[in-house]
Amino acid sequence: MSLLLLPAVGMGIFILLTVVGRNPQAMNLPVRVTDENRERVYGAGIQFIHILRMVTAALFAYLV
Fold first, then answer.
1. Which of 10, 13, 15, 38 has a CB 3.0–4.6 Å from the CB of 60, allowing a cystine?
2. Which domain holds residue 41?
3. Nearest Cα residue to 56 out of 24, 9, 19, 22
4. Contact 60, 10 (CB under 8 A)
5. Considering Cα of 47, then 49, then 54, then 55, what sign does the dihedral take?
6. What is the overall mean pLDDT for the chain?
7. Residue 1 pLDDT level (bands cut at 50, 70, 90)
8. Burial class (CB in 10 A: 0-12, 13-18, 19+), 45
9. How many domains does the chain fold into?
10. 53, 46 in Cβ contact below 8 A?
């Protein structure tokens, strides 16, 4: 049971970050999104989610 817990948690986090990365409107951003800055803000947010997803996957792969 405990051998499957860590990979399951890692997979759940990976899936959650994938869903949020594909729907940038679901992100809680620290700036107001307007029509003028929408592409830049969502682009930076998506890039951050992709990096966070890679780091999280690498961390869980190392731990397992």
1. 10
2. 2-63
3. 9
4. yes
5. positive
6. 91
7. low
8. buried
9. 1
10. no
